[in-house]
């Protein structure tokens, strides 16, 4: 298939549950063109062929790497295969957008980041919630000072399935919340404590409760599970001036800002005095445009490719997220002990 001049040619490796969403999104965007995809499974190739007859389907992803019309590649295969496929993509000189989590260790993530930098190529990781309009609104409310100093963050991400056979719920779901926390705080936690439980498969946690401590006293808590009756995607931000709540499943009031708090130190002699200390001035619901986060993410990736510019979720951010996962896994193996997060990854989080 020929690629129109000036369009960014895209290849997609892995067309299971998630990969076809990338094909759809990059096909919709005017400045990109999906040239080809690859999947080992003939059933998945037939599925893509039926939806996108213009997209060539291959069984061997090396055919994507050999195609000069393809400038950038999306990797949406199972997590354990990300590192070697992403490395292969970078080594042939193509930009890469790798689904989250980038890989399974922070060391691998740093190595991939260095390779991309050395080759002057874009490595972006699909931490898609950093491109969610509700999360971006929270970031704006924090950085413009509306909420005041953040004190703690509390996230819940549960559903019934999909249960993964290769990585635990922390890698699969928790990496979303850790990436959000690091983005909102502009920092990296110094220590982490976690407990989890392997219920449906041996040695793969279905549910994890993770507590994160940031250097400036900010506390974070994440509850993730793929064994839960309810789909919940929420985040509460408690700050000095105001509090905010994000609910991704609520189509109308995705972000609510509560003008609530304590106006004075909690010292009182009567219940009446106690009530006066609490400020509850109301709730506002900011206007939020709701573009599909995957579209925002794809546009950001194309911006980076066109301008060779750093992105919000590059190799450094992905390595930082994985360093937290590693500390949490060490903690889970040690009865929930508070474990330090690898110092090597204490690099500043991108301000983009
Ligand atoms: N950002 C998000 O919200 C989000 C949502 C779902 C999945 N994901 C991520 O996307 C990735 C894929 O998840 P999924 O649910 O689509 O998994 P999946 O198992 O449904 O699909 C993976 C596909 O990759 C193919 N594959 C495996 N090895 C291959 C290879 N060497 N060459 C070509 N094809 C190969 C498989 O045949 C399969 O069709 C995971 O990393 C997951 O974490 C992200």
Q: What would your notes on this structure say?
A:
The chain is an alpha/beta fold. The chain folds into two domains: 8-127, Rossmann fold (3-Layer(aba) Sandwich), CATH 3.40.50; 130-294 and 320-345, Dihydrodipicolinate Reductase, domain 2 (2-Layer Sandwich), CATH 3.30.360. It is 33% helix and 28% strand. It is built from ten helices and 15 strands. The protein has helices at 19-28, 42-51, 62-65, 82-91, 106-118, 133-143, 169-185, 271-277, 293-307, 315-333, and strands spanning 8-13, 32-38, 56-58, 72-75, 95-99, 123-126, 150-160, 189-197, 207-214, 219-225, 227-239, 243-247, 255-262, 278-284, 339-340. Strands 14-13-12-11-7-10-9-8-15 form a nine-stranded mixed sheet. A hairpin with a 3-residue loop joins strand 11 (227-239) and strand 12. Residues 345-352 have low confidence and may be disordered. Residues 13-19, 38-41, 44, 61, 76-79, 81, 99-100, 126, 128, 172 line the site of nicotinamide-adenine-dinucleotide. The site of nicotinamide-adenine-dinucleotide has 23 residues, from loops.
Could you outline the blueprint of secondary structure elements for this entry?
Blueprint: E1 8-13, H1 19-28, E2 32-38, H2 42-51, E3 56-58, H3 62-65, E4 72-75, H4 82-91, E5 95-99, H5 106-118, E6 123-126, H6 133-143, E7 150-160, H7 169-185, E8 189-197, E9 207-214, E10 219-225, E11 227-239, E12 243-247, E13 255-262, H8 271-277, E14 278-284, H9 293-307, H10 315-333, E15 339-340
Parallel strand pairs: 1-2, 1-4, 2-3, 4-5, 5-6, 7-10
Antiparallel strand pairs: 7-11, 8-9, 8-15, 9-10, 11-12, 12-13, 13-14
Bound molecules: nicotinamide-adenine-dinucleotide.
């Amino acid at each position: 298939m020929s690629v129109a001049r000036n369009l960014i040619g895209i290849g997609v490796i892995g067309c299971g549950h998630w990969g076809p969403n990338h094909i759809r999104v990059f096909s919709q965007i005017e400045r990109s063109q999906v040239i080809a995809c690859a999947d080992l499974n003939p059933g998945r190739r037939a599925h893509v062929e039926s939806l996108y007859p213009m997209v060539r389907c291959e069984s061997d992803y090396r055919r994507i790497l050999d195609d000069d019309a393809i400038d950038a590649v999306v990797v949406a295969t199972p997590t354990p295969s990300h590192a070697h496929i992403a490395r292969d993509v970078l080594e042939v000189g193509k930009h890469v957008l790798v689904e989250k989590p980038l890989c399974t260790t922070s060391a691998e993530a740093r190595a991939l980041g260095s390779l991309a930098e050395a080759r002057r190529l874009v490595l972006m990781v699909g931490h898609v919630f950093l491109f969610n309009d509700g999360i971006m609104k929270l970031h704006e409310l924090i950085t413009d000072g509306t909420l005041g100093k953040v004190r703690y963050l509390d996230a819940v991400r549960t559903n019934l399935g999909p249960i993964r056979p290769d990585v635990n719920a922390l890698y699969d779901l928790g990496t979303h919340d850790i990436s959000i926390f690091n983005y909102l705080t502009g920092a990296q936690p110094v220590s982490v404590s976690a407990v989890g439980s392997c219920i449906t498969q041996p040695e793969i946690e279905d549910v994890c409760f993770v507590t994160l401590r940031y250097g400036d006293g900010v506390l974070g808590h994440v509850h993730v599970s793929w064994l839960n009756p309810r789909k919940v995607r929420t985040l509460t931000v408690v700050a000095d001036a105001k509090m905010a709540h994000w609910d991704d499943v609520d189509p109308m009031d995705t972000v609510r800002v509560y003008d609530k708090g304590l106006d004075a130190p909690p010292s009182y002699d009567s219940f009446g005095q106690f009530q006066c200390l609490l400020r509850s001035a109301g709730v506002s619901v900011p206007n939020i445009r709701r573009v599909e986060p995957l579209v925002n993410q794809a546009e950001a990736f194309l911006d980076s490719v066109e301008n060779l510019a750093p992105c919000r979720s590059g190799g450094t951010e992905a390595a930082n997220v994985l360093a937290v996962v590693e500390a949490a896994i060490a903690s889970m193996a040690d009865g929930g002990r508070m474990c330090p997060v690898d110092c090597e990854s204490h690099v500043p989080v991108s301000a983009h």
